[in-house]
Design goal:
The chain has 91 residues and is mostly helical. The protein is 87% helix and 0% strand. It has three helices and no strands.
């Protein structure tokens, strides 16, 4: 429990920031999951659109500070490698 006026304010700010970041993280996870499913579905056009959306969402989450930049970079890299490997094997 916060004992001072400033600590109470910081607690309120933390609650608001956490809620905002949670929305951003959830969107990133959903787009990532959608991209993986689209890539495994082996439809190249759909997979490319989902991949671009996932990259954009992860980059935005990292720039807002909702997730660390390194984590976003790692997920984008692995997702891109998966797409290249899966879609080139089917072509």
């Amino acid at each position: 429990m916060a004992n001072t006026k400033t600590a109470t304010k910081r607690a309120r700010q933390a609650i608001r920031r956490n809620a905002r970041n949670q929305v951003t993280r959830s969107k990133a996870k959903t787009s990532l999951r959608g991209a993986i499913e689209a890539i495994q579905g082996k439809d190249a056009a759909k997979a490319q659109a989902a991949l671009n959306n996932a990259i954009k969402t992860l980059s935005k989450a990292a720039s807002k500070g909702a997730i660390p930049k390194g984590r976003a970079s790692r997920k984008i890299s692995r997702l891109t490698l998966l797409a290249k490997k899966t879609l080139s094997a089917n072509a």
